[in-house]
Amino acid sequence: PTRILTGITTSGTPHLGNYVGAIRPAIASSRAEGAESFFFLADYHALIKVQDPARVQRSTLEIAASWLACGLQPEDVWFYRQSDIPETTELTWLLTCVAGKGILNRAHAYKAAVDRNREAGEDDDAAVTAGLFMYPVLMAADILLFNAHKVPVGRDQIQHIEMARDFGQRFNHLYGEHFVLPEVVIEEQVATLPGLDGRKMSKSYDNTIPLFAPREELRKLIYSIVTDSSAPGEPKDAEASNVFQLYRAFASVEETARMREAFSAGIAWGEAKQALFERIDAEVSPLRERYESLMSRPAEIERILRDGAGRLRERHAIPTLRRLRDAVGLRDLS
Ligand code: ATP
């Protein structure tokens, strides 16, 4: 089977971008013939950005409940919390010892931090942790540990998959063919959603619309999306509008075409936002009920996660690390 891996960082409340960009397409492809899916809650990754234990825990529960509410079947896929698989961190070290530091210097997230420091007149590495710098190695471990073939990502993540290939290839070259090199799969048809302020919707930017915001909060947030000041009746450029980008991610082709015409005809912003609210709420509200019910049963979620990780360690992670330890010359733990 083709192994497909998708993770969401447990750094905050899951939002519409996570749903459209990760949860919805990943669940759809997990149902396809011949797919073996790995869905994980990236809590080791969260520590790079969030040093608030309550927030990480809350986010873990919310993201797990979101996957389940959206139809993930824990018996049919691998569903686990990253830190329940400590072999991930051990593999991270093995890969760290073959990863070129020069390659990590070029990683986007690290370079962006350096650029910000330069603009602020600080040292290049001011407030940059080794965790941020090493983030691509941890991500390579997530992928290579389970020999995932495909990691569907947005354009901004291509570089990380290429790094995972590079580290895997170096390891294979030194120690034998242990790793499958993952393919970069760009999901062209999957949209990147803008947030309330027009930048990419992201937990890090505090510009998100929570996937399961209660209905009234959803309405308020949608009405707070930043728009230009064009008056009702004035033609509007659909492609340039955040409201339209969001609408398109939830609407059929026909509905989208009708909305594009309404934009040209000068739909009022209030009316466009009301249509957007109704469209999103129609898709999300049956899922929201399941989500709320799951959130009231955290022990059950915890049980599902532990069970998933336990089976996955036994089946893949522990035997894989045993082989890798042997390959590099470390003691056999068995
Ligand atoms: P963080 O700021 O902590 O990185 P994030 O909200 O940007 O969080 P991630 O947890 O890094 O999201 O990403 C999880 C998944 O959600 C990835 O597959 C990513 O491509 C997808 N995703 C995140 N934001 C968006 C967005 N605005 N539009 C579409 N997909 C998104």
TrEMBL record:
Main location: cytoplasm
Alphabetized GO MF terms: ATP binding; tryptophan-tRNA ligase activity
'KMSKS' region (motif): residue ranges: 200-204
Catalytic activity, EC: 6.1.1.2
Residues at which ATP binds: T9, T10, S11, G17, N18, G154, R155, D156, L193, K200, M201, S202, K203, S204
Residue window of motif 'HIGH' region: 10-18
Organism superkingdom: Bacteria
Binding residues for L-tryptophan: D142
One term under GO cellular component: cytosol
GO process annotations (BP): tryptophanyl-tRNA aminoacylation
Location within or outside the cell: Cytoplasm
Coiled-coil ranges (or none): none
Catalytic activity: tRNA(Trp) + L-tryptophan + ATP = L-tryptophyl-tRNA(Trp) + AMP + diphosphate + H(+)
Swiss-Prot/TrEMBL keywords: Aminoacyl-tRNA synthetase, ATP-binding, Cytoplasm, Ligase, Nucleotide-binding, Protein biosynthesis
Family per similarity comment: Belongs to the class-I aminoacyl-tRNA synthetase family.
Subunit description: Homodimer.
Known function: Catalyzes the attachment of tryptophan to tRNA(Trp).
Protein name: Tryptophan--tRNA ligase
Organism (species): Lysobacter spongiicola DSM 21749
